[in-house]
Write a structure and sequence with these properties.
The chain is an alpha/beta fold and 549 residues long. It contains 17 helices and 20 strands. The strands form 5 sheets. Strands 1, 2, 3, 4, 5, 6, 17 and 18 form an 8-stranded mixed sheet that branches. It binds NADP nicotinamide-adenine-dinucleotide phosphate. NADP nicotinamide-adenine-dinucleotide phosphate (NAP) binds next to helix 5.
Length: 549
């Protein structure tokens, strides 16, 4: 006989920054919780992505929780851009300090969530046989957590070691003396290539699309500047929340086309020197909306690549010309372009000579065969929707989320999807998410969800469900704003273009964090406008024979 389902108030899926904060906030509401996490411990993306050179490219003092002024004061970051191990230590510290592991079962993947209309609850199943019933489900599953293997024949035949940057072995791997191939030149490739090059006997980089990358100019943080920030941390956090991308950057006043060439060049030089992602992207106010303006930034970066890389042919191969600057996520690097000046590093353009297959001994392209001892797939993720469509999620009327989203994700505010009551998506598609500092986006979403749940419980409401009309309007708005920009012109993971067969839809909301926050707060203040709130359905008492007449 099947065991009865364990009843809790909420299931939280994922134990990265989002899941952990959800545990913290929901516990304050006295909810009973069950967390599930596929990884062996807390950390989410920082638990999985342990590849050489992995760092955050948002500054460490900005990429961390703001909910606890105490943690903010007691934790001291050591570098401008924290390494993956340091971030994991930080997450570990927060989890310990607030006892956040208590309700989490690790090494457990949620396989299904099914809405039980009569009970107004979710039934959750896992790959370890857990059976849970919960009023709420919080999908804190991350935007970039479903690692994507490349569609290349023969991977399984390779006799050497293979790795995916997003699933790196915890014991690490020493590439000393090895002939290594890296496939992919997104952020993960660009961060790992310089470090792998230092270890390997020879590194071959297989590049399909060159990316725009800027120097990180990382440095150890000195105690005085850390103390200075800590002294004004609260005010700084507020400014972050009020900033378009969740980091404080001066808003540009000028169009790139308003200035003469010298003044424009000087602006780009200053932006490049900041060593920040947003410095260059926000150097002018029209880089992401005007092709000609954008081209000035693209040309500036290409000129830097040609300056750094000795061989002009290699420099040209590394120069992006097919997508506007900033429309595929740009990268921050440490000596990426200079790595191609090493004698033991070579660059293969697999757009010109595509990979045909992986053989037992290496990679075969249409023109050459590369003998390798190890291959690193830096091939990215089924972003944003991948983690949400992994489990079988079935809503009202037996509708599968996979079917509902077959033509692309549809959400109301990136927080909920119509027909799936009480299921919340933290930094879901249709929210600013990956376009802003994720730490800020996560806290904002979890706070909104916790406030919503508190509202429902105070009023004895059983469920909240987005209306189809509100969702349609929001999806239209997300698309309209995206269409004002150059983003839809790139084959990026923002557009789902990196996964064969995935609908081509711009998934995040590009209207900026302050505008978005205003909208979602306004919805909440207006008694959750655009949602249907349903009271607890009490079953009709069975009529006895005597009362029937
Ligand atoms: P990505 O940006 O999607 O890059 C994947 C790379 O693999 C691309 O160059 C892609 O080429 C290439 N690729 C995929 N399939 C291929 C195939 N079959 N043959 C040849 N090349 C193939 O993935 P990512 O580098 O892991 O980064 C994903 C996101 O994670 C980033 O954009 C960023 O948001 C986040 N991230 C952040 C940090 C950080 O510092 N905070 C670090 C790493 C990652 P195409 O471009 O042609 O598709």
């Amino acid at each position: 006989m099947t065991a009865p389902r364990r009843e809790v108030d909420a299931v939280v899926v994922g134990a990265g920054l989002a899941g952990l904060y959800a545990h913290h906030r929901l516990r304050q509401l006295d909810l009973t919780l069950q967390g599930f996490e596929a990884a062996g411990d807390v950390g989410g993306t920082w638990w999985w992505n342990r590849y050489p050179g992995a760092r955050c490219d948002v500054e460490s003092m900005d990429y961390c929780y703001s909910f606890s002024p105490e943690v903010e004061q007691e934790w001291t970051w050591t570098e401008r851009y924290a390494t993956q191990p340091e971030i994991l230590r930080y997450v570990d510290h927060v989890a310990d300090r607030f006892d956040l592991r208590r309700d989490i079962q690790f090494e457990t993947r949620v396989t299904a969530a099914t809405w039980d209309e009569a009970a107004q609850r979710w039934h959750i199943d896992t790959d370890r046989g857990n059976r849970v019933s919960a009023q709420f489900v919080i999908m804190a599953t991350g935007c970039l957590s479903a690692a994507k293997q490349p569609e290349i024949d023969g991977i399984d035949t390779f006799r050497g070691e293979t790795f995916h940057t997003g699933r790196w072995p915890h014991e690490g791997f020493d590439f000393a003396g090895q002939r290594v191939g890296v496939i992919g030149t997104g952020s993960s490739g660009i961060q790992s290539i310089p470090v792998i090059a230092q270890q390997a006997a020879h590194l071959t980089v297989f590049q399909r699309t060159p990316n725009f990358s800027m120097p990180a100019k990382n440095f150890p943080l000195d105690p005085e500047s850390v103390e200075a920030r800590k002294a004004v941390y609260r005010e700084h956090r507020q400014r972050m929340r009020e900033s378009r991308a969740g980091v404080v950057v001066p808003m540009p006043e000028h169009s790139a086309l308003e200035l003469d060439a010298d003044a424009r060049q000087a602006t780009y030089e200053r932006a490049w020197a900041t060593g920040t992602l947003y410095g260059m992207v926000a150097a002018f106010n029209d880089l992401l909306v005007d092709r000609d303006a954008n081209e000035t930034a693209a040309e500036f970066v290409r000129a830097r690549i040609h300056e750094i890389v000795d061989d002009p042919e290699v420099a040209e191969r590394l120069s992006p010309r097919k997508h506007p600057f900033g429309t595929k996520r740009p990268c921050l690097d440490s000596d990426y372009y200079a790595t191609y000046n090493r004698d033991d590093v070579s660059l293969v353009d697999v757009r010109a000579t595509p990979i045909v297959e992986i053989t037992p001994t290496g990679v075969r392209t249409t023109t050459d065969e590369y003998e390798l001892d190890a291959i690193v797939f830096a091939t990215g993720f089924d972003a944003m929707t991948g983690p949400l469509l992994g489990p079988d999620i079935t809503g009202v009327g037996g509708v599968a989320l996979r079917n509902k989203w077959a033509a692309g994700p549809r959400t109301y505010l990136g927080l909920a999807t119509a027909g799936f009551p009480n299921l919340f998506t933290i930094t879901g598609p249709g929210s600013p998410s990956v376009l802003v500092n994720m730490a800020v986006a996560i806290e904002q979403h979890v706070d909104w969800v916790a406030d919503c749940i508190a509202y429902l419980r105070e009023r004895d409401l059983a469920s909240i469900d987005a209306t189809v009309d509100a969702e349609d309007d929001w999806v239209d708005h997300v698309n309209e704003v995206a269409d004002l920009t150059l983003f839809p012109h790139a084959n990026s993971w923002y557009m789902g273009a990196n996964v064969p067969g995935k609908p081509r839809v711009f998934m995040p909301y590009i209207g900026g964090l302050p505008r978005y926050t205003e909208v979602v707060n306004d919805v909440a203040a207006d008694d959750y406008r655009g949602f249907t709130l349903t009271p607890v359905i009490t079953p009709e008492p069975e009529r006895s024979a005597s009362s029937a007449h």
